[in-house]
């Protein structure tokens, strides 16, 4: 049907999902100003092509922290995939394996990380962690992710408390249905709730560095001063993210925050970005402004809700095709040839 664009998938997903579940996936915090800003800011940037450069053979692949991706688009960690499709994160991982990219498995997944890995043997998996106040339990989760073969630990640092999502409050959505749970939080014969850690600090990041030999990615760095601190604390990569507008409403769009973070990092580690990426041209804009790759959150959920594994495959395939098309039109043969000179206000 309307499955020719990422936005078309949202309409399809909305028609299929329970309204409260659609609102959970789609919504943001507060007035949703940041949610809207992420997409709007991409629309305000233009791409200035070069011409007559004979770019026939295209190169879209990137290597991030030793993980290979056939395109500079990762799957952002999002919770509760089984609300969108019975196979949930298994289906997502299979589509990610077929697209040869990287899935950041949410700690709040509804399929255990071991089962996600088993369902998609070829998939490159990274694991997203919310540091739990109980550090011994946090360590158990980290060990599970390591043993399942995850190649990086993505620590979300923008959520000392959960954002105030007014759609969820209105819908009284705060629990998963009976038959689902956060499988990564099983502890003996119970399942612990996801708990945020208001006391989260750089000390926790240092502790994680001792706890694991996996590269640590800090997700939710937006201030250049924090980007510099991330380097001091041995982060292997930074993800510029406002959590898709779901945490602090009123934050600027991530694409507008990116240049200052890139400048602060000075090429020391890769800088990733998520928030509002809906087109191949958005990917090129982010890379031109210094991102090593981007991640997509909601579009993957829309694909999953619309058509399961096939829907996610289609979403990732559309992005890949749009990136290639935009690259040729920009006169570039490779995603490594993009630079800030090609971005202007629209
Ligand atoms: C439904 C939903 C669930 C999410 N769950 C998580 C999560 O468990 N952990 C996390 O670090 N980020 C989570 N995020 C944030 C995403 O990783 C990402 O930052 C955001 O979705 C990117 O914006 P986009 O949806 O506009 O692509 C979630 C986002 C959504 C929409
Ligand atoms: O919904 C989210 O954005 C999110 O990050 C989250 C946090 C805790 C549990 C599940 C999802």
Automatic annotation (TrEMBL):
Glyoxylate binds at residues 24, 165, 243, 246. Keywords: Flavoprotein, FMN, Oxidoreductase. GO terms for cellular component: cytoplasm. FMN binds at residues 77-79, 106, 128, 130, 156, 219, 241, 274-278, 297-298. Its cofactor is FMN. Signal peptide: none annotated. The active site is at 243 (proton acceptor). Residues 1-346 form the FMN hydroxy acid dehydrogenase domain. GO terms for molecular function: FMN binding; oxidoreductase activity. The keyword Cell division does not apply. InterPro entries: Aldolase_TIM (IPR013785), Alpha-hydoxy_acid_DH_FMN (IPR012133), FMN-dep_DH (IPR000262), FMN_HAD (IPR037396), FMN_hydac_DH_AS (IPR008259). Belongs to the FMN-dependent alpha-hydroxy acid dehydrogenase family. This is Alpha-hydroxy-acid oxidizing protein. It comes from Nonomuraea turkmeniaca. The lineage of its organism: Bacteria, Bacillati, Actinomycetota, Actinomycetes, Streptosporangiales.
